[in-house]
# Entry
Amino acid sequence: MLNLDSYSVEDLLLKRRSLHRQLSAVEGLRELRVAVLGGSSTNELVNLLELHLLSSGFRPVFYTSEYGRFYEEAVHDVQALFDFKPEIIYLHTSYRNVENLPPLSCTEEDLPSYISAELKRYRAIWDSLERIANCQIIQNNFEMPPHALLGNMDAAASAGASRFYMLLNMAFAQEAAQRPRLFLQDVHGLSARIGLRHWFDWNRYWSYKLLLMPDANLELTRSLTSIIKAMFGRSSKVLVLDLDNTLWGGVIGDDGVDRIQIGRETAVAEAYTAFQEYCLSLRNRGILLAICSKNEDEIAKSGLNHPSSILKLEHFSCFKANWRPKHENIREIAEELSLGIDSFVFVDDNPAEREIVRSQVPAVAVPDVGSDVTRYAEIIERGRYFEPAALLREDLQRAELYASNSRRQTEQSRFATYGEYLDSLEMTAEIDRFKPVYLERIAQLTNKTNQFNLTTRRYTPSEISTVADDANHIGIYGKLGDRFGDNGLVSVVLGSVKASELHIDLWLMSCRVLKRDMETAMLDVLVARAKEKQLDSIVGYYFPTVKNGMVADHYEKLGFIPKSTYEIPGSSVWSLVIKDYQPRNRHIRILEPING
Amino acid sequence: MDDVFPEVQEIFRAVLDQPDLVLTRESSASTVDNWDSLAHVDIITAVQSRFKVRFALSDLDRMKNVGDLIDLTQKKLEMK
# Structure
């Protein structure tokens, strides 16, 4: 796949048509319907966004509002947008689209009324969009105005425009916190990082109503692409790190553990400490860390035992220090963590190592971090690999989950039979119909589970919410806990009722609970629900992808009978008569559903 | 003219996706296929960044054909 990060915005715009041709020739792209409602001309932005979405595995189809008519097309003339059936709506407005800027005479008492008047317009837009389209809405907040008319007081006076935009941004953030489908794009932050002098393009604005510089549109595009990838579960999940001159200064094998640069004693040591702190903060919000270093295992580990090392061995979900090629180690890490290699980011100060990984496993993101530790974090940040779409409890606990997983693997070898091992885990499961609190997590799982996934159908939270309320669907989730900890919500099964049959549209499970008999427990509950609805049989489908080979025999193992092959090669249809079905789960204690 | 023309032609070819396009000084939006208002923005943006020049609003207003664009770019380059 073409990597657009190496192109300048000039090249992207100039070669747009030929890049478009190359990128859209790739097979297996997912169609994505994107509506862009703009307060200024959005052509350049849409052109750039199209290329970036193509190179991220999507085949975008766009709806764009007439110039400047974002409000009208969202609130009044909504038919065209409704008919388009968008999956993402992007509202791109700027400080120029604001209508209720306070006058210079504005008093402190009056100021809130200007904020609420402006907010009311946007609420009308969001309310209307939430009604007409069952999809995610991305709204940007506001950049600061190009001129501070009141100088420094512009940010403090009641009539100050800068202060007004800051307050409006706060109000937008509060709205976004309350509206699950409204995602706020932080243009305030983006424009500040680029600088407002490199943001607005007055020449092109007065000529063509293009408000932003090409570079600003590119920045906006990259940010949007990472948001959309995150919404579809395609953000990166694992940061693989080298050790020598990446996590500490010096070569531990040559210099010895006492001589590596880490801690507070020198400027260089402080810079490495800061980078370790950055990595730890990523881990704390759910990004897994792994080590891939050319070193003796024991010597490498002694570096993490250095009293000043922020990162300790327990922070890493996988640790590979050996003399084998790094791309092989990275492939192994992916297998051990049961995660797709396309969700990996590799950071190494050595350009030769970066190059071999890039060429041997192109799916791994390899930012050019250079060899200056002071810039590593900034360069990783600019790649926007780890953009989150929501901060879920599961994300915050993920690293611990994977840590207890490796403890479980150690225990496994001590038992005579596998069943004995499963019993020793003292597993408990909560299996129940979809509940509002889990809708986001369920949708997240449908988007990021690729291996244990029979149909690989993707759902948005709002689609999950719709089927949860529908009497013709049976949807159940499963949470699994054991004596090492809570694995969280790990399995989802969703079926639709057709006559006397339940057709399974979706059956997925997180790979961290593979071979725990959770699928049997899920089937027991599914059958019970189907019997409640007086159904006779359950029909399961397997649609093969490059990643889900492990579940090709899923239904066979559960005792389903092959029904027929499907029109897609390799796929299969299975059926289970449930009249005489007896519960089969032996190793997991099922907790009573709390809400019955 | 000699320096600027071939590069401007290359920009037109790339933006309009017509590798064999041949321009003359008289070529204009009405004689060149696909040279619509959107392509025009891309062409002007590309010329400005390729030659590192900025056109004034009044210059853009007066621009009628390829000859005008070449002359304007040439003039800006001489002023640098």
Remarks:
- Residues 15 and 42 of chain B are 7 Å apart (CA to CA).
